TrEMBL record:
Keywords: Oxidoreductase. This is Aldo/keto reductase. It comes from the Bacteria. Coiled coil: none annotated. PANTHER family: NAD(P)-LINKED OXIDOREDUCTASE SUPERFAMILY PROTEIN (PTHR43364:SF4), NADH-SPECIFIC METHYLGLYOXAL REDUCTASE-RELATED (PTHR43364). One of its GO terms (cellular component) is cytosol.
Length: 326
C-alpha cells in the first residue's frame, strides 16, 4: 500500500480509505453486513496496508461506529490507524439530536468516542453544513474539541465551495482549528467538483477524500443499464442513486470505463479508482466493500497507471450535471 499526507498536515494515510457504512446492522439498510460478516473485511484491509477508516454516527445509527471500533482494536495497532467519523444527521427524534449546534457537536463527539472505544478521534468531520446554526458557533465548538484533546483534525463533507471557503476564512480570522480535508462527491460520472471545490482545496492545501468513487456501483460493471435496479441488493434498495445519476450521458461514461477495463483485462472498478487516484488533488477515495474481491480490486487500483489516451477516452463522454450530493 502507498501512503500520502492528508492535505498540508503531517498525517500519513493510505491511498485508499475503507468506508465503513457497509458494516453495522442490516436493519438500517438491507445491504449492510452485520458485525460477524464485517470482521474479515477489517482484518484483510489491515493486512493489505490500509490505515485509513471512515464511518459516521448516523451509519446504522451508531452501530457502524461500534463495529468499526471493536474490529480495529482487534486487528490493527491503533496508534497507526487514522480513524474518521462524522456528525450532523439526526441520531434521534429530539430537536437537539441533529445539526451542528455546540450542544449537539459536543454530545455527538462524546457519544462517538464511547462507541468507537477510543480517547481521541483522528479526523472529525461535519457531514453537511447546518443552515440553522451560525457558522461561528459550529467552528468554535469544533475548535473546543481539538483543544480538549478529543479530536486531532477536522474535516468537512459535501458543501458548496463558497461555504467551505468562508469556513476556512472564519477559522483563520479567529485562530481556530481549520478543516484539513473535504469528503466530497467526485467520480468519473460526476465531476462538477472540478469547477470550484477542487481548485479551492488545492490552493488551501486541503486533502480530498471522495465518497462514492464508483458512482454507487455504476462504475463497478455490475449494472446492465442506468435504470437497472435488480443486479445487486444495494441497487434494489438504493433510492439515492437515481437522484445522483439520472442522465443518459452517465451511462456513456460507465461504458467508456468498461471498455478501457476490458482492454486492460481488469475489473471496471479498478479503472474508475485508478482515474480518481490520477487526480493530483485526490488523497484517498473512500471505498465500500461487501465482497472480498471489492477490497482486493480496490487495492490493485493503487498501482494501476492509466495512459494519456486512456484518460482521454474515460473523460470524453462526460456531460455537465446540476449539483448533486449536497
Amino acid at each position: 500500500m502507498k501512503f500520502t499526507q492528508l492535505g498540508r498536515t503531517g498525517l500519513r494515510v493510505s491511498r485508499l480509505c475503507l468506508g465503513c457504512m457497509s458494516y453495522g446492522t442490516p436493519s438500517w439498510r438491507p445491504w449492510v453486513l452485520n458485525e460477524e460478516a464485517s470482521q474479515p473485511f477489517f482484518r484483510r484491509a489491515v493486512e493489505l496496508g490500509i490505515n485509513f477508516f471512515d464511518t459516521a454516527d448516523m451509519y446504522s445509527l451508531g452501530v457502524s461506529e461500534e463495529v468499526t471500533g471493536r474490529a480495529l482494536r482487534r486487528y490493527a495497532r491503533m496508534e497507526e490507524v487514522v480513524l474518521a467519523t462524522k456528525v450532523y444527521f439526526p441520531m434521534g427524534d429530539g430537536p437537539n439530536m441533529r445539526g451542528l449546534s455546540r450542544k449537539h457537536i459536543v454530545q455527538a463527539c462524546e457519544a462517538s468516542l464511547k462507541r468507537l472505544g477510543v480517547e481521541t478521534i483522528d479526523l472529525y468531520q461535519i457531514h453537511r453544513m447546518d443552515p440553522h446554526t451560525p457558522l461561528e458557533e459550529t467552528l468554535a465548538a469544533l475548535d473546543q474539541l481539538v483543544n480538549q484533546g478529543k479530536v486531532r483534525y477536522l474535516g468537512a463533507s459535501s458543501t458548496f465551495a463558497w461555504q467551505f471557503a468562508r469556513a476556512l476564512g472564519v477559522a483563520d480570522l479567529h485562530g481556530w482549528s481549520r478543516f484539513v480535508s473535504m469528503q466530497d462527491h467526485y467520480n468519473l460520472v460526476y465531476r462538477e467538483e472540478e469547477r470550484e471545490m477542487l481548485p479551492l482545496c488545492e490552493a488551501e492545501g486541503i486533502g480530498v477524500i471522495p465518497w462514492s468513487p464508483l458512482a454507487r456501483g455504476l462504475l463497478a460493471g455490475s449494472r446492465k443499464s442506468l435504470t437497472d435496479r435488480t443486479s445487486t441488493t444495494r441497487a434494489k434498495t438504493d433510492a439515492y442513486a437515481p437522484v445522483l445519476y439520472d442522465q443518459p450521458g452517465d451511462w456513456e461514461v460507465a461504458e467508456a470505463n468498461r471498455k478501457v477495463a476490458e482492454a486492460r483485462n481488469v475489473p471496471p472498478a479498478q479503472v474508475a479508482l485508478a482515474w480518481l487516484l490520477s487526480r493530483p488533488v485526490v488523497t484517498a477515495p473512500i471505498i465500500g466493500a461487501t465482497k472480498m474481491e471489492h477490497l482486493e480490486d480496490a487495492v490493485r487500483a493503487v498501482d494501476l497507471k492509466l495512459t494519456a489516451e486512456e484518460l482521454q477516452q474515460l473523460e470524453a463522454p462526460y456531460q455537465p450535471h446540476a449539483l448533486r450530493g449536497m
